[in-house]
Amino acid sequence: MITLTDKEIEEKYKISHAIKDVNAILKDYNEDKIVESIRTVLPAGEDSSMLYMPCISLTQQVSIIKTVSIFPTNKNLPTTQGNILVTDLTDGAHKASMDASYLTRLRTGAMTAIATDKLARDDAKSLGVIGTGNMAFEQVLGVVEVRDIQKIYLYNRTAEKAEAFKKRLEDFGIWADIEVITDVDALVEQSDIINCATQSKTPVYKGELLKPGTHVNGVGSFTHEMKEMDRTAIERADHIYVDDMDGVKDEAGELIDAVEAGIISWDDIKGTLADIYDQGHLRQNNTDITIYKCVGAGYFDLAVAGGVMKMFA
Predict the structure, then answer these.
(1) Which of 23, 142, 175, 200 has the smallest CB count inside 10 Å?
(2) CB atoms within 10 A of CB 235
(3) Phi, psi at residue 101, to the nearest 5°?
(4) Which GO terms of the cellular component aspect does the record hold (predicted)?
């Protein structure tokens, strides 16, 4: 069995690889080649969580189980840490144990790239980033992979973290003009695309400020209690898409809240990534507000784990 660290994987496996592999797994999903169990989320303290995600690919004859720890109060360790165990289904042998923190962020960024490519305006030039933790970085990479972003606004409750995030983007080679902004309202009003990656239990921006034509990617919240978006944002959205319908019905706090409040019904969700990944641009005009909500599912992790195995096996 091989053991792979985040650093080893990051040196070879990039956002472009992840996008290709996620697209491939969505095809398998549509062909009923995926067997999965819904993610189990267990509380591990007041603000901490443990996540367990098993999945099987009948096409690849591979099984994975991902374990993720989320500890927001960490000081000397990452907030999110993970591991993926890969098993060969032809003989039951465990083939690899790989760090999954980077892969979790990367597959989520690849999913954001696919959604943004289908839903954001073709001429979108500005990206607003609300929350500059580790998860946010690959979300930016996903967006710049599919749109010609010239301006990036960064907002974080702790401005120093936003400044460090800016330097990280610059060091990575992101050439867009990057600005740390202290007024989240101004960010919303100026952004063509908004990436939101927080674990907030209260909305982090005002939906009433979304300008016509904005596309929103919401990837941070994953429990009933977490609500990055307010009801107004959801009510104003002309089109809402999600990564996985079963997952969001159990875990997307803001959508669950909106359904329970009668603002939308689950039937108002236009579709999932599996419904749209192989379609053309879905936007009908430049004034509709679109939302993509992501909570994650095991087959997305299987997609990137399988891609890594092809590189390292």
Answers:
(1) 175
(2) 13
(3) -65, -50
(4) cytoplasm
